[in-house]
Amino acid sequence: MYVVPDQSGRTVVVTGANSGTGREAAERLAAAGAHVVLAVRNAEKGEKALAEIVAAHPDASAEVRLLDLASLASVRAFAEALARDLPHLDTLINNAGVMAPPTRFETEDGFELQLGTNYLGPFALTNLLLPLLLAAPEGRVTTMSSGMANVGRIRFDDLQWTRRRYSPTRSYAQSKLADLLLSRQLARVSMQRGWTLRSNAAHPGFTQTNLQTAGASLGRDSVHRSPIGNLPFVPSQQPEQGAEPMLFAAADPRAVEDGYYGPSGRFGLVGPTGPARLNRRMRDDDTAARLWAVTEDLTGTSLPA
């Protein structure tokens, strides 16, 4: 099992920290000495996760704060409260997301749910927290992508799936490719401006979490599994292993600017952490820059001057 380096003195925000890989990452970062902000949509679930972490690690320093990435108002409120309470933020882990709801849902801002929750919300959160991250000696932003990004395409003519027939899997793939492009564009900006900020990305391979059922069950009376996560003959792993690429990217001194990490075992779905392959669309700097500009307009957020 990957051992998280000492995080004493560092403050880390983990979105979606009440379950799955986010919950695992929050516990292991707290155990390594970080003060962890569990950024969650459901307060009760967040407090339950916090109680479990403190029970397992009595010296852990952690707190719960509410954040709904499907609401830009919630994102702004979270960032503003954090700015009031912290002198700086060392690490932001953009982990929370939704996968493959059966039909097209919208966020409260009118965005397609997967694009809004998986990409637009984290984009806005990152921009709004950049002043705090840049105030840290060595700020770091780790954004979670997915193996599905390999088949994703950025459809600028229909980002919100209003013109084409909605596809849960292709919409998810687009949102996770967008996450990777966010990470890479932020890394380029950071290097161009001489910031000490380090932006990188990770993916969990095929990890068994409630991500496979939560989105697929939206609007239904019973629990359903996403077709993405319903592959019985494909190797899979548990959150303890699936969180490790994220932990390496967010906490390890060897994780580089603009790096992308994932499992290095069979089909890139399981196994110890290693560099993940970038296909042509993932390396398209022009698309990344164009998407950033479009997203600034959609979210009303931008880089610090």
TrEMBL record:
Q: Which Gene3D superfamilies match?
A: NAD(P)-binding Rossmann-like Domain
Family to which this protein belongs: Belongs to the short-chain dehydrogenases/reductases (SDR) family.
Its name, as the record gives it, is SDR family oxidoreductase
A single GO molecular-function term is: oxidoreductase activity
Keywords, sorted A to Z: Oxidoreductase
Q: Which SUPFAM superfamilies does the entry mention?
A: NAD(P)-binding Rossmann-fold domains
Tell me the InterPro entries matching this sequence: NAD(P)-bd_dom_sf (IPR036291), Sc_DH/Rdtase_CS (IPR020904), SDR_fam (IPR002347)
